[in-house]
Amino acid sequence: MTADNPYQSEILSKDQEFVWHPYSSLSDPIPAYEVVSAEGVNLQLADGRQLIDAMSSWWCAIHGYNHPVLNAAAKQQIDSMSHVMFGGITHAPAVNLCEKLVNLTPLGLSKVFLADSGSVSVEVAIKMAFQYWISQGQADKNKLLSLRGGYHGDTFAAMSVCDPVNGMHHIFEKVLPQHYFAPAPQIAFDQAWDDRDIADFKSIIETHHKQLAAVILEPIVQGAGGMRFYSPEYLRQVRALCDQHHVLLIADEIATGFGRTGKLFACEWSQISPDIMCLGKSLTGGYMTLAATLCTEEVSRGICEGEAGCFMHGPTFMGNPLACAVANASIDLLLSQDWSANIQRIENTLATELPAFNQLRTVANTRVLGAIGVIEMKEPVNVAQIQKKFVAQGIWVRPFGKLVYIMPPFIITNQQLKQLIQGIYKVLSAPD
Questions:
Q1: Would you list the domain boundaries of the chain?
Q2: Are 318 and 115 in contact (CB under 8 A)?
Q3: pTM for the structure as a whole
């Protein structure tokens, strides 16, 4: 309890009593920190401390917090309408957003299905792939091929294509649909290509293509499954093999979309276009939950000319006008700047500062791509203990497993970024 916030201790007490946080145990809860406001790259705690946010609120707040342009878009839209059903009704924010996404994403993606969250956009993509083949009279094409080390969300179809052994959802193995998995790509982003890296994937798709509806993967960056950056050539080879064996390609760009890797979309590193693409997270700059699943004309026509005559999906909050208005403003804001140079600036600072961590005995390696910096530890970290130490340094970092990583808002200054990295270094270099 403080003079500025006499209800702080009561809020935290009620939080522990009533609230179940993501990936947390109620029998051994990780302490939560009460945030009362956020501005720029800073989170203001109820106890008066201010933290530099390294996580962009799980990678979505690319413009930082309380941005006047996004605030204005939300305020203007809410005075018109916050929501109307999307069944039989349309409105300018959704139509303009869909047109924008078609114009920005890789060539060939021409239809947009708006959804509620990243996990739902993956569910929609998987359902699109299955319904496409059902409509073609090939219902036996009902399996998916994914990559080990991948992560695609927390809903059931999404969980079924996450890493089945080391992923967060392996305990559900007996209740999830069973799909095929190829080894995670081993050739790093900047390493010379070796055809052996695609050999197992090639063998699986050649053997099982008559059963495979689609390949689903995270292009270039495997995110929550391990923060791995793999060769663009791998993705090019996957695209060619999918074409050769009549298997759809789903690109999960939920984490990588809108500039995070240094390209507007990670598929651009390989100069390929998927049949279906999932977008989310930074779509609204972290203001509202919204996602999108894009597909080609061939996929949409194939679905709609089948027995059902339509795509069998319809979220209640699909095309929410408030979310769409903020998404339009967020995309326009990103494109109004030299975002590519800005990401390069962040990458340069990370690439300069992170190698020092390799000298620490507890660190296995470091890696950088775009506005993503990864410090991989030799052993898993204790999240509750290490987070307390990060907060004491005035920074907000949320590690998982062996990974202490940075995905800051794009507006972070070089000084703030160096302060953030120095805080992490002080924590990781301190004696146990």
A1: 8-66+338-429, 70-335
A2: yes
A3: 0.96
**Given 163, 197, 252, 275, the catalytic residue:** 252
Question: Active-site residue among 151, 230, 234, 405?
Answer: 151
In this predicted structure, the answer to whether residue 7 has a pLDDT above a threshold of 80 is no
CA dist 135 and 375 (Å) reads 46
Q: Per-residue pLDDT tens for 187-207?
A: 999 999 999 999 999 999 999
Given the residues 111, 143, 281, 402, the one annotated as active site: 281
Q: In this predicted model, what pLDDT tens digit does every residue of 8-45 receive, in sequence order? A: 579 999 998 999 999 888 888 888 999 999 999 999 99
Using alpha carbons, list the distances in angstroms from residue 209 to 36, 146, 180, 181, 419. 52, 13, 11, 13, 50
What is the chain's Cα-based Rg?
22
How many C-beta neighbours within 10 Å does residue 25 have? 9
CATH class given for the domain over 8-66+338-429? alpha beta
Residue 151 annotated to the active site: yes
Question: In this structure, which CATH number among 3.30.200.20, 3.40.50.1860, 3.40.640.10, 3.30.470.20 belongs to the domain 70-335?
Answer: 3.40.640.10
3-class DSSP assignment, residue 411: coil
**Is 425 part of the annotated catalytic residue set?**
no
Whether 230 sits among the annotated catalytic residues: the reply is no
- The 10s digit of each residue's pLDDT in 298-357 is 999 999 999 999 999 999 999 999 999 999 999 999 999 999 999 999 999 999 999 999
The angle that helices 414-429 and 383-392 make with each other, rounded to 10 degrees, is 130
Instruction: Decide if 281 is catalytic.
Output: yes
Integer angstrom CA distances of residue 354 from 84, 228, 363, 395: 47, 16, 11, 16
CA atoms of 323 and 114, how far apart (whole Å): 11
pLDDT in tens, 80-109: 999 999 999 999 999 999 999 999 999 999
C-alpha dist (Å) from residue 425 to 41, 113, 335, 375, 385: 19, 43, 33, 10, 15
Residue 78's φ and ψ, nearest 5 degrees, are -65, -25
Q: Tell me if 8-66+338-429 shares its fold with 70-335.
A: no
Q: Has residue 5 got a pLDDT over 50?
A: no
Tokens of 334: 């990103």
Q: Are strands 143-147 and 180-182 parallel, antiparallel or unpaired?
A: parallel
Q: How many CA atoms lie within 13 A of 142 on its CB side?
A: 8
**Active-site choice (23, 79, 174, 432):** 23
> Could you tell me if 177 and 160 are in contact, meaning their C-beta atoms sit under 8 angstroms apart?
yes
